[in-house]
Amino acid sequence: MIKELLLQFVVALFPAVVYQLWHDSDKHSNRGKLYICAASGVSMLVCLLLCYDFHGFDIDFGIVPYLTGSLYGGVPGIVVLSGIYVLTRAPMLQSAGETIAFVSFLGLFMLALFKLYPLFNAANAKNKLKISTSIISAAVGFNLLASTLYLDYTSVNYTPQIIAVSFLSIISCLAGSYFSVFIIESLRRNRLLEDEIRLVSANYSNQVEALQQFINETAFAVLLVDHNGRLTHINELGMKLFALMPNDGSIQYFIGWPYETIFQPPNSAICVHALSKALKGERTVQEPIIGEKYIYLKTAFPLYAAAEKDDITGAALIVQDITEITRLRNEVGRMERLSLVGQMAASITHEIRNPMAVIRGFVQLIRERSPADQQQYFRIVMEELDRTNSIINDFLSLAQNRALTMELGSLNELILQMAPLLEADANMRGQSVVLTLQEQLPPMMMNEKEIKQLLLNIARNGMEAMGDAGILHIETRSKPGIVELLIRDEGIGIPQEKIKQLFDPFFTTKQRGTGLGLSLCLSIAERHSGQIDVESSPGAGTTFIVAFNISRHKGEAGRAYYGTSGMQEQLRMEGGA
Question: Residue 433 has what pLDDT?
């Protein structure tokens, strides 16, 4: 008998077991109610087959799956399971008393289910256990009362065996109902926790991805490490500026690396020191890192937990490349100096140029009336006056805001026009000129007078740098959207520390130079959408590379270009005076 009761108890828990199987395999579908109702129906039938006849009473735990399936299956479950209960129990009724008791029990039980199902569905796990226990207790109490009346009616004595079996049946029904609801609610609570964890994990992943996208798009190099000093985030600019090693081009490759091992010289010690201080709670703000071709601004600071300000969770290193900003600042300074030059040129044009013309005329008149042995003195005076006038002309050329007419032309043809003059200058110095002109060189918009002046200035500088011998190489070449003019000498070269100052007004490496020639050349190049680069090393000569951006002028037949020196109508009027 005990074996049959125990087997029925296990079968009564079958709906909870099926719910667990559905939860583990098909938990993302909405068929949970269908599964639990079907399992409850099967469990009711199996319990009926395993029921035990004890002194005319059928010991059957089918009420447990009936209750479980009805509470979790909703109204359809109540109707279906009640139908199964009626169809399986009705044929077993043998008297009018049993029929009355069955109908009364079923009516009260279904009424309780329909009444309490909405409350059960909205309740928490603790209250669901209370509701299910109350219903099963009432059902068991009803059956106990009916059994007691039957025993009294049939005058059957209450033996210890009857009392023990009754007590065991009551406890089994109560325990089966309790454990069924407890197991199902535990699984549902676990499912909710899994869903919450999945949602939090998805939000975390989205936040991490958003952070990485923000870091990638920002104009700063960003590197983040955790409290153990292992890399957690870095952007593409950081890969470039920090020059991580070994660099296979993948950000994910470096995630998890100790920060001490990923930096390359020459800035490795600086970056490691900054992050070490940040992980100790020290903040470094905007410290410059100055290299040969770059200037970086470095900031490192600790990262704290949201709740605990003293709990350091990592550190951040942010580097801003201010090389271009510094270059622009220097360019602004150069333009300001050019503006000053223009103002000086405007003010001295009438004050010096006209009196000098008078002086030169009288010196020439006196020279014609002077003895032959004094002619060399007059020649020196006139040469110096001419040199002074040339300086004034350079001032005006650099500062005047003249309107330029650009026309489509060939740089090669312009160089060929200038070749005889350049060769004559070179021959007088014992030098030679070699032209290497690219065939099919794209045409460009230019002002021929200015480009000739640029070519002549740079070429004569190269000749002066070579002394009494050497070859001056003039070359043209093109790239997509670019036409380049290269002028290379075989002179003594220029020290690296002086190359940056070559285009500053008044800076010169020559004893009798004015320091305005290359400034004028740069101004001409910029008016033609170009730039000038210098490659030089002591003893190996110097190469000036003038690159013109012809893509900006594509399709133009001509245009007027106005400079930016600030000397407008005043210079044009006074310069022509």
Answer: 93
